[in-house]
Design brief:
Shape: globular
Number of helices: 4
């Protein structure tokens, strides 16, 4: 049930977001969640799909912090994988 709710919320943000900020934050949160639960391949593919690593310096500070936390969690996931 929780997985269904999360997927529904993320899909809603992906399709209805007019600002790029919410879209990026939703992808980062989704990637963080996947990495936290050891879904390395899905998390890696999702983070590489958006090419955020080239433009993260243009984002606001809270999004940059979320990006850094997501990358650390993805790195930890690699060692658990």
């Amino acid at each position: 049930m929780k997985l269904f709710i999360r997927n529904t919320c993320v899909r809603f943000i992906y399709t209805n977001d007019n600002t790029n900020r919410l879209h990026i934050r939703a992808i980062l949160c989704h990637t963080y969640h996947l990495a936290l639960h050891d879904y390395y391949n899905q998390a890696r593919d999702l983070i590489l799909m958006i090419f955020i690593q080239h433009t993260i310096y243009l984002a606001d500070i809270s999004t940059q912090i979320l990006y850094n936390r997501t990358m650390v969690q993805l790195g930890l996931c690699v060692f658990r994988f």
